[in-house]
Design a protein that fits this description.
CATH class of the largest domain: Alpha Beta
CATH topology of the largest domain: TIM Barrel
Oligomer: single chain
Strand order of the largest sheet: 11-10-9-8-7-6-12-13-14
CATH architecture of the largest domain: Alpha-Beta Barrel
Radius of gyration: 24 Å
Number of helices: 14
Order of helices and strands: EEEEHHEHEHEHEHEHHEHEHEEEHHHH
Helix content: 25-40%
Length: 431
């Protein structure tokens, strides 16, 4: 029995009729007769070749297969996140930082730095994952380069003969401590990706990303270090994140244009807006100055007006994050194990410790891994499921278990927003 796909949206605009399918990304104007057939789901009057064409565009489907795509995505999601051949480690050798950014979580926490005992325990923890033949390392903090000597010691320990191969490295850093010694380390060992945060041009950046106990700005030093990275690590992708909220989005435009002019045509450099998630005083939802899911469309529109090539089209694959990946861990400087970047330093969110090799907070671990995954009955029935990235699992967890109200769904769950995007050409279209 045939029926309209749950991913098909039909609508009328100014006496014109349209059909869109989020699974195939097919969008086209259609006849009034076909529109009426969609509305009534009466296919008897349609010729066989039309039926076959509608099937090929996935606008209609057999009733017993309407959820096939959902379940195939679920299977793929679980397969990816249960692949045990690669161990993904986010390592924070220190939670100390040389900056005093007013919005940073680190300012409220007692900084720690990893010691030799914990480094040894880390090596044993890696060894215990016997199915892994590769290790991906992402350095994090705090500011990881404040403990560069510990980074070197960890790398040496994890690159011993009996260990799985270190297949790649990445680092999230403020960029201030990128010395020649650090450059040489990544030249020798390799580095796939470097992320550096810029808050704006000179004055704006220096007002928020300043050194602790010093009036000195950091912008000039960071830009000089970016020069070194681009010159001496040409095969490394450099991502410059610009922190913005609804009050200062033009800072992104200024920074992006600055680096576009400074390094024209550099394909290894990307500048992107980092949306600061500022929570209200009750920590239950986002502040009015923050970009929620729906407001991101407004931001994209603003950026387009300034000449940026921005697509509103979301990801078509829910890949999940380290929360659901059974081989992904964030390891803190005392050996504590976390399952989310947002949790570092929050003792209530620690799920275990590499020194004991067990998961002491198994309840939180399971809630993160299973219940906060981007698949549920609401998703299964949603017309926007194929073009949704599933939203942030961390905020999904908080909605589910901490009585929060964070906006997670794709803005295209709202059919009016989806229609407007289609008619304005902001979604990729195919005939």
């Amino acid at each position: 029995m045939l029926e309209l796909s749950i991913y098909t949206l039909q609508f009328c605009n100014k006496s014109h009729y349209y059909a869109y399918n989020s699974r195939s990304n097919f969008f086209s104007e259609i006849s009034k007769e076909l529109y009426d057939a969609f509305e009534s789901q009466n296919w008897d009057s349609l010729p066989d070749f039309v039926i076959e064409e509608l099937k090929s565009k996935e606008l209609i489907c057999e009733s017993n297969s309407k959820f096939d795509f959902y379940y195939s995505q679920l299977i793929s999601f679980n397969a990816r996140n249960n692949d045990r051949t690669t161990l993904n480690l986010v390592l924070a050798p220190t939670t100390a930082c040389n900056f005093a950014c007013p919005y940073c979580f680190e300012s409220k926490k007692n900084p720690k730095t990893i010691d030799e005992e914990t480094i040894d325990a880390l090596a044993e923890f890696v060894k215990s994952h016997q199915d892994a033949n590769k290790v991906h390392i992402h350095w994090y903090g705090g500011e990881p380069l404040l403990a560069f000597d510990k980074m070197e010691a960890i790398y040496q320990k994890l690159s011993a003969e009996e260990m799985p191969e270190i297949s790649s490295q990445a680092i999230t850093t403020n960029g201030y401590c990128f010395t020649d010694e650090v450059i040489d380390f990544f030249k020798e060992k390799g580095c796939d990706n470097i992320q550096i945060t810029i808050d704006g041009l000179h004055e704006r950046h220096n007002a928020t990303r300043c050194l602790k106990n010093s009036p000195d700005g950091t912008f000039e030093t960071i830009v000089a270090n970016i020069d070194k990275i681009i010159t001496q690590l040409p095969e490394t992708r450099l991502n410059i994140r610009v922190n913005i909220n609804k009050n200062n989005y033009t800072d992104f435009i200024d920074v992006a244009n600055f680096f576009k002019a400074k390094y024209p045509g550099n394909k290894m450099l990307s500048v992107y807006p980092g949306l600061i998630r500022e929570e209200d005083e009750n920590r239950r939802t986002l502040c009015s100055s923050s970009f929620g899911t729906s407001e991101k469309l407004e931001l994209n529109e603003l950026l387009r007006t300034h000449g940026f090539d921005i697509s509103d089209f979301p990801n078509k694959s829910m890949r999940g994050c380290m929360m659901q990946n059974t081989m992904s861990y964030l390891i803190g400087p005392e050996g504590e194990i976390y399952k989310c970047w947002n949790d570092i330093g929050n003792l209530d969110a620690v799920v275990g410790n590499i020194k004991s090799k067990d998961f002491s907070n198994i309840s939180r671990y399971l809630k993160y891994s299973i219940q906060a995954a981007p698949f549920n009955d609401e998703c299964r029935q949603c017309h926007a499921f194929p073009i949704c990235d599933g939203g942030c699992s961390y905020y999904r967890y908080r909605n589910m278990f901490e009585n929060c109200h964070f906006d997670l769904c794709s803005p295209y769950k709202d059919k009016n927003k989806l229609v407007n995007a289609l008619l304005s050409g902001k979604l990729p279209q195919q005939s």
